[in-house]
Amino acid sequence: MVWIIADLSQKNKVQEAEKAQLMAQISVLNQQMNKTSSALDSVTNKQLSSDEKAMTYIGAIEKKLTTINNYLSKRGLRGFSFKKVKTGGDSKVAAEKIFSKYDSYLSRLVSNVSLMPMGYPRISAFTSLFGHRGNPFGFGNKEFHPGIDFKGKTGDPVKCTAAGTVEFAGKAGGYGNCVRIKHINGIMTLYGHLSKINVREGQQVSVGQLIGKVGSTGRSTAAHLHYEVRRNGKAVNPKEYLSLN
Questions:
Q1: What is residue 166's three-state secondary structure?
Q2: Quick one: 47 and 152 in the same domain?
Q3: DSSP for residue 215
């Protein structure tokens, strides 16, 4: 069990490193945007090479934006579509138009990454995965499990996986004490069977914030955390959101 927890801890560190790397890549894009802006400002009719350099920067930015956007799309987040602006006529004006569009795109992309649920709500072994499973109450039939269960002891901390707004905090049938957090693009996370709730409805929460504590309330056989990710109201496998890869 110790090695399993250690492995999960290492995976979480890797995930955090991946997210940091992604944000660093966006930072590099910002720097490239600034270089592009400077190049555009210096363009004259006699400085075609500067204009070509600016367009080269824009081409590189476009490729990197596509790569980052693919990370988001794989996790059900709507990407921001962008079309190339035709460079007919005044190439400086055309380049500035492209730059302005990508600058806006990049700003929204940064917001998307920071608000996307990623990582573990707590570091522990899985006790039940997403999908069909045997009924834990021993009725001999199978049932669909819409999330992942994390092993834990009553009172262990539970943290939210992305910034958002607490949509619900209270008792919710089989979920027992439950917290639902609304994120961007129709994404919602749910944390169930809590022994204590540390947030209130309507509260703005940040990634990694303590939202409750592990318990065994509701339809539960032992203390654990039930974690769900829902996309447009439909439960999806939370494993898709535990890592960028």
A1: strand
A2: no
A3: B
The number of folded domains in the chain is 2
Is 230:175 a contact under the CB 8 Å cutoff?
no
Last residue of a domain, one of 115, 143, 177: 115
Is residue 120 assigned to a domain? no
CA-to-CA distance for 155 and 171, rounded, in angstroms? 17
Choosing from 62, 87, 115, the residue where a domain stops is 115
C-alpha to C-alpha distance for 232 and 22, rounded to whole angstroms = 25
CATH number at residue 200: 2.70.70.10
Q: Residue 221 has what pLDDT?
A: 87
Q: What is the pLDDT of residue 12?
A: 57
* Separation of alpha carbons 229 and 63, rounded Å: 30
DSSP percent split of the chain into helix, strand, coil, nearest 5: 40, 25, 35
State the DSSP string of 5-17. HHHHHHHHHHHHH
**Consecutive sets of 10 residues in the chain, 245 residues long: mean pLDDT of each?**
50 60 63 57 49 66 69 56 52 63 69 71 81 68 85 94 94 96 91 97 92 94 93 89 64
CA 87 to chain centre: 35
Read off the tokens for 4. Answer: 């399993």
